[in-house]
Request: fold
Amino acid sequence: MLSRLSDLVNGDADLVRRGQYLTASFIVGIGDTDWLIEISKGRVATVLPEPALMTSSQFSIRAPEGAWREFWQPVPIPGFHDIFAMTKSGDATVEGDFQPFMANLRYFKDLLAAPRGQI
Reply:
């Protein structure tokens, strides 16, 4: 799913504009596989599966593969419609520096939802 993330995000002018002042890196964990996502001025610069051990990132969002599959449905069922709903139920965890995540919350929520309906 995440291999197409740069096309999905960078092709959305509104989303890029929303993140135009953001440069950050974070990890999305899908089951046992981590993906490093690097953002530069609102654009997805890098999507790297299984980054090297000790790769620096500001925060991580992890969930089992089945939880992400539900999250990425065109219309997710309750409990999988939002990253915070997934954390509340224990299906996802968010760890690390919350400042860039919370300061750009709408951007990150829309970025993570970009693959919806693509599976």
Observations:
- Helices lie at 5-10, 13-18, 65-71, 83-88, 98-103, 105-113.
- The longest helix spans residues 105-113.
- The first strand starts at residue 23 and ends at 30.
- Strands lie at 23-30, 33-40, 43-49, 59-63, 93-96.
